[in-house]
Amino acid sequence: MIKEAKFVISNSNPGNCPKPDRAEIAFIGRSNVGKSSLINAITEQKGLAKTSQKPGKTQLINHFLIDEHWYLVDLPGYGFAKVNKKVKDGWEAMISTYLKKRENLCGVCVLIDSRLPPQQIDLEFILWCATEGVPAVLVFTKADKQSKSKTSQNIQAFIRKLENFVEEAPQYFITSAEKGTGKEELTEFLEELVKEYDSGELNP
Ligand SMILES: Nc1nc2c(ncn2[C@@H]2O[C@H](COP(=O)(O)OP(=O)(O)OP(=O)(O)O)[C@@H](O)[C@H]2O)c(=O)[nH]1
Ligand SMILES: [Mg+2]
Description:
CATH topology: Rossmann fold
Bound molecules: guanosine-5'-triphosphate, magnesium ion
Protein name: Probable GTP-binding protein EngB
Function: Necessary for normal cell division and for the maintenance of normal septation.
Shape: globular
Domain EngB-type G: 21-196
Pfam family, one: MMR_HSR1
Family: Belongs to the TRAFAC class TrmE-Era-EngA-EngB-Septin-like GTPase superfamily. EngB GTPase family.
Number of strands: 7
């Protein structure tokens, strides 16, 4: 369980992020998928990360310090068609540089909208992570929006698609920021990653 979460800093330049002196886990996914909302849900602080009904709210790399121990990072979304190409390319370069270069990054949660059938952009992003050696897990969001069977159908379809390209699909979680579904399970997993990083078992 997370007891305390504090905002540290926002950056557009990955090179200006805080000193990489502790475990770090980032949330990434399409614009509007619910990254900032899920950060607020697991830290139990409604206004910690800024959220919006409109895609494109988070535009910087945001560091939060969790329990004076590790960093949780909220990133801008990918695939937001409505910003101009220059801005979009800028965000994408910032995200990919951050993910490739951040030496203390021990996990990346790729958030996927559980309401939708498999989306090409999410599959491509996860395959990019696999190629770059970015350690990804899948986090399906907004599970409160439809029946459990529909959620499960979309997830199974997603995993099947992924399995066409990778030997083993990453681990996944089912969540709702609205209802708190999956919150404990995901937090436990993140804290376990931090423990492994601290003990030197992980070598990001
Ligand atoms: N019903 C429901 N709505 C959600 C859930 N998570 C997020 N939302 C809504 O989805 C919208 C987008 O949420 P954000 O958390 O701002 O999404 P984001 O991925 O951070 O978006 P960007 O920063 O723009 O990339 C908001 O209107 C949220 O209230 C959820 O679990 N259930
Ligand atoms: Mg956001």
